[in-house]
Amino acid sequence: MKVLVVGNGGREHALAWKLLQSKQIGQVVCVPGNGGTASMERCQNLSLRVDDFEGISQFAQSESISLIVVGPEVPLAQGITDNLQAKGFLVFGPSKAGAQIEASKAWAKALMQEAKIPTARSAVFTEVEAAKSYVKAQGVPIVVKADGLAAGKGVIVAETLEQAHKAIDAMFGGHFGSAGKFVVIEEYLTGQEVSVLALTDGISIRPLLPAQDHKRIGEGDTGENTGGMGVYAPAPIVTPELMTSIQTEVLEKAIATLKAKGIDYRGVLYAGLMITPQGEFKVLEFNCRFGDPETQVILPLLETPLEELILACVQQRLSEMPPITWKQGACATVVAASGGYPGTYETGKVITGIDRAEASGTIVFHAGTQFNQGQLVTDGGRVLNVTGVGKDFDAALDQAYLGMQQIHFEGMYYRRDIGYRVRK
C-alpha cells in the first residue's frame, strides 16, 4: 500500500521511517517532507503546502494513495481530515471539531471541566486589564497561555508580576498572532511533566509508552520554552498503576465526552500531564496529534506494525487489536538546534557528519533540513533529532550523544543534560 504523510518535521520523518519498516508498505510520500525523508528508499517528497488540500487530494487520487497520516496540528485545525474524508480517503487525524482540543486551550479547559478530568485551576480573558487584575489577585508564579496554536511557544511561566503583565501585553498585542485573541491564565503546578500519547478510534483508546520531554532551551531546565530539546521513553515516573489511573481518569473520560458532543475523534490524543511530588496528576494540555519530539523515541521501541494500529483507528476497530507490543530497553533523542532558537536564527547552514553518526548506530531524524544544490542545509529552528536506543537509559543517551559528536553545522546548539533525571 501507498501512504501519504503530511508534514515536514522530525515527527514526520519518524512516521515515514517506521511505516517503511512494514512489508505492507510499498511507498511513503511526504508533503512537503524534509532532507531526511528525501534520502530514504521508497520515500519521496511532494512540494505542496500542508494546507493545499486540493493539491494533496488530486495527488492522492492520481497515485492511488491508501492512507493519509496527518502530522502537524495546523492542517488538522484547518479541517484537512474533513476535507479529505469527504472525498473518500482514509485519514488518520481528528476532524476540525476534534482538533479544537489543541487549537483552543479555552475550549479544552471547558471540556476537561465537563468531563471532570483533573486539571489546573484557570480563567479565560479577552481584555488586558481584567487579565492583569486576576494575576494580581492570584499571585505568582502563574502560567499565561495564548489560547490558540503557537508552535509550542505560547506558554509563559511568570515568576514575577512584571513577567506576567509583560506576557499578557505580548499576547494581546499580537505577538502570537490570532492565538492571543483569548488568554488563559492558570495556576502554577509543581512536579514533573510527562507526555502520554494514545491512539483512539473514537470509541476505545490505547496509550503508547509515556515519554518525558525537556521543553526549556537551557541546561538545568532554564530559559525560554521551546517545542522540545530532548526526550526519552518510557518515562519511569509513570508507573503501571499511574498509567491505569491516567487511562480511566483522563483518556477514557476525554474520548467519552468528545463522543457525547457528537465529535468523531480518530487519531492521536496526547495528554501533557504534571505529576506532583505526591504522585498525583493533572492535565496541563491536550494535543490532537503525535508529539514532536516524543514520536521520535516512542516509534523506535514499537514492535506492533504502525500501519496496523493506524488502520484500526481509522476503521474503528481498535478494540479488536491485540495488545500493543514493545521492545525492551529505552530510547532517547537530543535535539540539535540552530543558534538563536527559539528566537531569531539563520538557515542555510551546511550540515556534515550524519553519515558518521548513523554508522555509529545512532538514528538521525531530520526536523528542519532540506537539500540545496546537492548539499544538506539547515531549514528550521530544531534541525535534527539525534536518537539512541539501548538496553537502559544510560546506553540510549550515550548512543545519542555519541552520534551528536559526529555532527556539525555552524551555530549548532544542543543541551548536554538530556535525561539527567534517569541517569544512574
UniProtKB/TrEMBL annotation:
Pfam families in alphabetical order: GARS_A (PF01071), GARS_C (PF02843), GARS_N (PF02844)
Keywords tagged on the record: ATP-binding, Ligase, Manganese, Metal-binding, Nucleotide-binding, Purine biosynthesis
Pathway(s) annotated for this protein in UniProt: Purine metabolism; IMP biosynthesis via de novo pathway; N(1)-(5-phospho-D-ribosyl)glycinamide from 5-phospho-alpha-D-ribose 1-diphosphate: step 2/2
Query: EC number(s) of the enzyme?
Result: 6.3.4.13
- Provide the top EC class: ligase
What reaction does this catalyse? 5-phospho-beta-D-ribosylamine + glycine + ATP = N(1)-(5-phospho-beta-D-ribosyl)glycinamide + ADP + phosphate + H(+)
The family note in this entry says: Belongs to the GARS family.
Q: Which InterPro entries match?
A: ATP-grasp (IPR011761), ATP_grasp_subdomain_1 (IPR013815), PreATP-grasp_dom_sf (IPR016185), PRibGlycinamid_synth_ATP-grasp (IPR020561), PRibGlycinamide_synth (IPR000115), PRibGlycinamide_synth_C-dom (IPR020560), PRibGlycinamide_synth_C_sf (IPR037123), PRibGlycinamide_synth_CS (IPR020559)
Q: Tell me the cofactors it needs.
A: Mg(2+); Mn(2+)
Molecular function as annotated in GO:
ATP binding; metal ion binding; phosphoribosylamine-glycine ligase activity
Protein's GO biological process:
'de novo' IMP biosynthetic process; purine nucleobase biosynthetic process
**What gene name is given for the protein in this entry?**
purD
* Signal peptide (UniProt feature, chain positions): none
The answer to whether keyword Glycosyltransferase applies is no
What protein am I looking at? Phosphoribosylamine--glycine ligase
